[in-house]
Amino acid sequence: MRAIWYWTTCAAVLLVNSLDIRGEETVIYVSPRGNDAWSGRIESPNQDRSDGPLASLTAARDVIRKLRAEGRLGTFRVRIAPGEYTLSQPLVLEPQDSGTDASPVIYEAQGPEKPRFTGGRRITGWKKQPDGLWTTHIPEVAADQWYFEQLWVNGRRATRARSPNKFYFYVQRKIDHFVDSATGQSVETSNRAFQARREDIAPLFNIPRERLSDVTLVTYHSWETSRSRLAGVDPQQNIVTITAPIPWGFAYWGPNCRYHLENFRAALDEPGEWFLDRDGTLFYYPRPDEDMTTAVVIAPVVPEFVVIAGKPENEKWVEHVTLRGLVFEYSQYILPPEGHANSQAEVTIPAVIMLDGARHVNIEGCEIKHVGISGVWFRRGCTHCRIEKCWLDDLGGGGVKIGEGWGSDLSQPAVQTHHIVCRNNIIHSGGRIHHGAIGVWIGHSGYNEVLHNDISDFYYTGISVGWVWGYKESLAHHNRIEFNRIHHLGWGVLSDMGGVYTLGVSPGTTVSHNVIHDVYSYDQYGRGGWGLYNDEGSSYIEMKNNLVYRTKTGNYHQHYGRENRVENNIFAYSMDGQIQRSRVEEHISFFFERNIVLWDNGPLITAGRINDDLVKFASNLYWNGGREPIDFQGMTLEERQAKGWDVGSIIADPRFRDPEKGDFTLLPDSPAFKIGFVPFDYTQAGLEGDAEWRKIPESFEYPPVEFAPPPPPAPPLVLDESFEFMPAGRPPLEGQAISENRGDAVVVTTERASDGKKSLLLRDAEGLANVFNPHWIVRPNHTNGVTTLRFDVWLGPGALLFHEWRTWDSGPYQVGPSLWIREGRLTVGGKELAKLPLERWITLEIICPVGSSATGKWQLRVVGPDGEARFQDLPVGSQQFKDLTWIGWCSMAQTPTNIYIDRVILQNQVP
């Protein structure tokens, strides 16, 4: 019996060992010289070319499936020879393509030279035209079999023909309702139409209506942009309509909404621009250093490169797969017929490597470049995955996305993404199409690590964490954002951004040991660009040992949140102010302790309030170069300390070695040690590993701190408004209408009109909280020349009209022209000028030099049924009145009365 047992055991061991040997590792070869009909089991084609390597990743996947079906076990290693591979479809990996912890599936470069997978196609056949443009014909485009919206020349992204070439046009006013000049039909166009300045859109008048949808409208909305297809242009009224509404509309953030137009032949007027006609003709205007006889021109075909297609809702995963040392480049993005618009972070834009239901899937040492969408998205049900030492560059969208935004299921753990590592990556030059995209975005996801990355050259935020506005449940907790170098963001294009931006309740989250610099936002509507930005509801986050310098609006900002800890940071050289706390709530906002704050321009506090017991400042060092006493919002440091605020804080030169050149090393005699500041090695932020890898970001060129010259001022507001475009019963589209909804109103009406069929009604009522309600205001932004305002007014019995011009951006305002009409008596500065009839239309015309042309005087012309009167050299209300930034019409009666306004004409003539 013992002998039988011995030989049986030996046989079993031999069988197991033979299986382990047979399944230990299987190598599959892929080569540009390969053939998908071959086995892939030998590295080079055999002599009679009957077998050899495969030609594609998809074929390698299929061979692994076949071998598995035949019973082969163990690791599968797909070794990919250097060279270029053209993709016609993405590699799709499903649960059956998984490996195990002991036996993974690896797709990797065969040697040190990385194989290149391209989703593009080379464009040839270029011919020079007499006008200096180069053209080629693409039959597939003419046959409606291919179309593209991106183009690269010698590896450099070309510009789709746009107008204006630099900066923006400005919306004159939004249009929610109008009568189409061509059809005579009334059209509802809420959030999908605006009136433009005629000269801006004149080239569109010559485009056939069936080709208008090829024109793209890019609209800028503070922290986002939308991309829309044109539906129509009304040349009689200069109205542009788009195919679908956009979230923020055309005036949500105030007047002068910015936009530009892309992809029409007349816009092709600057080197580096291109235009693709539907007849198959591709036009290109070469840059001076480009020779089109030798240029490599690539247009994209494939949108995605790799799709990890697990089904986490069914607990079916793609597991233990690695992509290593591969290059993916040239991907497609086509704007859908309805256009594209997100409310924030370009949250729905996909990535060229999409992962759902992935566990232990790693992306190592890869490159993703020249793409129309984002780089990598660990989207739904992904856990314990990593992207490491990858280079993502020239991205249409963002870099790395983790988790979901809208539509996330917070109740099912299986579909939630967590424990993702994003480490030691270069993420550079993003948002090239989708401007609001982010370097690394974490939505509803926790326990992630974003470490040692170099993130730069985006138009919006570097790293964003969280997807809850306020104090509701959030999955974005216990995230580590540490040792990253985040820089050169914004470029003056978008607003309300941060080097690191957070949302929602985030216990366990740390934002530490990062270096953030050169964050420059578009200066509009008070929304800025900060280094560390705790936005809505951000709570319980530790922000420690960060170096933040050269930002636009402040190095630290909390909109609102609870008990965040901002400790032992260096904040230096923000342009417009250093610290901001926007909202006071009935709990501690944040702790601001042992920080060094250094600046040479602007106030310490950008906006908001710090002088109360619900924000805790202590043991900080402040230094403004000693140029003037530091103002703590109307208090000195000593006065704050007497109230128990900023205890232990000092005003002193921190004694950095050379801060203006970026050396923030503390000298041994620094007074910062007295506040308990602990020095940290900020040079550890950024990439890690071999010197060659760490030097790559040094090759990127950036202008100095003033790297984003501001656009020219928006054109002054010009009005010719008879309210005919606007539906009755609604507030006016132009300006801002303020009422209390207690019987009062500011609405368009058909009750009477001096011109046409409509006018604007200011209906007053009793018992209003504010005597100046209801009122209507516009913001002209007139900074030079002479402004003329003419309007018709009809006053009912008991009406009391107050009309005023102001210089008013924030704080106290300065009064320009100002008048009252009370019981028909027109008064200026308390002096009665004329008696006006009630219940009759009267025309008032005000003429006043403004801005740099201001003289302190203005003129008034009154035209009524009894004739005309003129009044010269009337004094403005304040001699400090300059720029015209506010005009208001207020009903001050406090009783039920009606005032009608019509034919509002506002002009500005600059010498």
Automatic annotation (TrEMBL):
Pfam families: Beta_helix, GH141_M
Gene3D superfamilies, per database record: Single-stranded right-handed beta-helix, Pectin lyase-like
PANTHER family found in the cross-reference section: RIGHT HANDED BETA HELIX DOMAIN-CONTAINING PROTEIN, SECRETED PROTEIN-RELATED
InterPro entries: Beta_helix, GH141_ins, PbH1, Pectin_lyas_fold, Pectin_lyase_fold/virulence
Signal sequence residues: none
Domain GH141-like insertion: 133-287
Protein's organism: Thermogutta terrifontis
Lineage, uppermost ranks: Bacteria, Pseudomonadati, Planctomycetota, Planctomycetia, Pirellulales
Name of this chain's protein: Uncharacterized protein
Ranges that cross the membrane: none
Domain Right handed beta helix as annotated: residue spans: 353-488
